[in-house]
């Protein structure tokens, strides 16, 4: 009954037109949005990169880490320590973020990948918790500011998040776009394919001859660097680095965004970040201090009923949607009976 | 360090060890039997603590005997924890046995939800709980006063240890549980409804953790983070003791409790916590099956 839809190769632009439209809207947004909403968008972009990096681990490589906040937080603290403590310029701090996160990734990877599954989740949680505890400890107060963290990080005047918010907006937007394409490139590369194979069946991938261990270390490093960069930008935006950015709550945020959007889809976590931050903003208005509870309940419901998230659900409903759209088109052509018939034929496909 | 200080620290360590034991034993059994690493286990501890505190304080106007109110609080706390545990396993964990990763995500999400519910019910800040009258004095121990309440926790912990040990070693249910830890599929093949045993063990583990929380409430107060905090210690205990090993978690609890007490005495509690978590990481790396090594690896 249904003809197969094929995308013509020449219509590259047409196929990507929704995304180009979204990008155009985001580029023009500063003309329409006030400072508050621009700030909200900046936070969405930062969280989106963080979620994206988590998806590389959980969604694509099947590595369940409960300590991802340590990368995000370390990026924030590197920015805080270097810019505020050592008065470094920003461009010099940038490579340090990357190097620090990469080193941490190698270390965490080499040490923790000796165990698997739940043990890996526990050990990463433990590592993150140790770093969190150290960041908040009073012994390190002269450097890290203890449980209050570092405040008033100096940000270059040209990208000040308050005075030059539009500039900051464009910086974080380009950051997200860049990181998204980088992540996509990685996922679609031969390395990315191996990682997916590892996720699907680790021993098979190893039997074929891939060194699974180093592939996993590699993806931990890459995802760690992405998360740390997001954390660094976060520190620049809020001008602070507090122990909270290293806490379990951050990891749960990443998990939430990834699950809400859809694991292993890359664009899903980005949507998840939009949902979390924008919806969170409204939920905070509606429910006041109780909004985290509402959030937690949404998470539980998602895990239970929509484990494949927004993108996954849409993907599964696509055939049903398509035939629905077709029936609407058929209606436009003037056949009244077409609607009823196709509505009925929709039903079996909906599940 | 004088002898008295040493004894004091040891008793302190035993007290903490018993609290760790109450939460870790359930965690370990649940993992051993069902392969569910319950990230919400600390929540039961928290629920027990809050319910005990609420019962104790809430009935103050009606019942003048603080000892009675305390006893009722302990039972109420354990029952509440067990009840929530049973509902959790039956309603939220059972449907996910075919999706292990989501099971972990579920328990992590539940830990978050339970904490938020507690915050909604009783506020985000902590409360302190008075000790019952007969346990609020100090007992002379080698010439130094030692709070009677800590001795009570130690006694309670030992009693529970004994009861659970006898239950595991001498009862039919205990036999099924031990067999289930060893080889769940075989037990099922022998015609035993393993799912029902799962619910039972989950409930029992949750009730034990809640009892621990109820006993801890007058000792450390109640606050929303109490669950995650003690859960982290329980993870350390379970890892060192070996997943699924009851005797292992008992021994490791006392070990970790003592280590904490000595570290707290010498260093700040935060650093002590960090060091002990590091010890866990090292044990995990060198001997993932635990020092008192029990069983299979923790594959998902």
Map the helices and strands.
The complex is a heterodimer of chains A (351) and B (300).
Chain A: H1 12-15, H2 17-28, H3 35-61, H4 69-85, H5 90-112, H6 117-136, H7 141-144, E1 150-151, H8 165-188, H9 190-200, H10 202-208, H11 212-238, E2 240-241, H12 248-261, H13 267-287, H14 291-305, H15 309-332, H16 336-346
Antiparallel strand pairs in A: 1-2
Helix pairs in contact in A: 3-8, 3-11, 3-12, 3-13, 4-5, 4-11, 5-11, 8-9, 9-10, 9-11, 12-13, 12-15, 13-14, 13-15, 15-16
Chain B: H1 3-34, H2 41-58, H3 66-93, H4 100-122, E1 138-141, E2 144-147, H5 148-170, H6 172-182, H7 184-189, H8 194-220, H9 226-241, H10 246-266, H11 269-286
Antiparallel strand pairs in B: 1-2
Helix pairs in contact in B: 1-5, 1-6, 1-8, 1-9, 1-10, 2-3, 2-4, 2-8, 2-9, 3-8, 5-6, 5-8, 9-10, 9-11, 10-11
For the structure shown, list the relevant keywords:
heterodimer; A: 351 residues; mainly alpha; 16 helices; 1% strand; disordered C terminus; B: 300 residues; two-stranded antiparallel sheet; globular
**Biggest sheet character of chain A:** 2 strands, antiparallel
Unreliable runs of chain B: 294-300
Biggest pleated-sheet summary of chain B = 2 strands, antiparallel
Kindly provide the radius of gyration of chain A, computed on alpha-carbon positions and rounded to a whole number of angstroms: 22 Å
Amount of helix of chain A: over 70%
Biggest interface, chains and residues, is: A-B, 39 and 42 residues
How would you spell out the order of helices and strands of chain B? Answer: HHHHEEHHHHHHH
Distance between the termini of chain A: 19 Å
How would you classify the helix and strand content of chain B by structural class? mainly alpha
| Total DSSP E strands of chain A | 2
Give the integer mean of the pLDDT values of chain B: 86
Per the principal axes of the C-alpha atoms, what is the gross shape of chain A? globular
Distance between the termini of chain B: 46 Å
Oligomer status: heterodimer
Unreliable stretches of chain A (pLDDT < 50, length at least 5) are 332-351
Order of strands across the biggest sheet of chain A?
A: 1-2
Please provide the count of β strands of chain B: 2
Count of DSSP-assigned helices of chain B: 11
Rg of Cα set of chain B: 19 Å
